[in-house]
Amino acid sequence: MTRNVTVPKISILAFCFNEENNIKKLIENVSFAHEIILIDDNSTDQTVAIAKELGVTVIQQTITDKIQQQNIAIDQAQSDWILLLDINEYLTPELKDEILIKISEPKSHEFYLIKQTLFFFKKRVKHGEFHHKKKIFLFDRKRHSYTGNPENKSLLAFFGKSNILKNRIDSFAYKNFDEYNHQLSLLSKEEALNLHNKNVKPNFYHFLMKPFFNFINQYFIKFGFLDGKEGYILAYINSFAVLKRYLILWLSYNKME
């Protein structure tokens, strides 16, 4: 960062599970932050011990609802600016500079969104739905109450593009199928719980048409096929995640595990 300004403090929040081989790299990548908080999902390796040794605050995950758990951690954070990370996301030097400049501006936005560059089995994905998604990445908790990070068109329409960061964040999710299955299960359960709370009951459309349309959208309409076999695998497994979400929802209504 080249500007001679006072930079507000930042607290970084990230979920983790059995990341003993990657946790040090993550912590080093965000060492510019005033505080790092990890929400640990009952890791069975040395993740927690390594994190604590490096001065990181660790909170054990006690709630299955990810948003509620994040809000608990936000309440415990020392800084007003909160940066939300996934454990396999990494910030480039250019992105770090942009973050610090944005939050130092007198008329900063209350939140900032970011686009991700997905590396799927080490290949950079340039097309498909994921390439266009935005998520709430950085926000001032004094002015913004975090309720999740799906793409919100009403918010984007109000703020325009000025609160979308120019630099993307590198995401190295899905390095292997074991990791994918764990993340898939967590996401599917979380979404199923949210739908159950809204009294949504699965039907023929949810089981057959939604996964089918999800695949068509990602693979054909958003040109996922241009990413080769990786584009097909990504579209397929994401569509399966949609099916699994409604299967879990159906099981919950029928009181089955």
Automatic annotation (TrEMBL):
<comment type="similarity">
    <text>Belongs to the glycosyltransferase 2 family. WaaE/KdtX subfamily.</text>
</comment>
<protein>
    <submittedName>
        <fullName>Glycosyltransferase family 2 protein</fullName>
    </submittedName>
</protein>
<feature type="domain" description="Glycosyltransferase 2-like">
    <location>
        <begin position="11"/>
        <end position="107"/>
    </location>
</feature>
<dbReference type="InterPro" id="IPR029044">
    <property type="entry name" value="Nucleotide-diphossugar_trans"/>
</dbReference>
<dbReference type="InterPro" id="IPR001173">
    <property type="entry name" value="Glyco_trans_2-like"/>
</dbReference>
<dbReference type="Pfam" id="PF00535">
    <property type="entry name" value="Glycos_transf_2"/>
</dbReference>
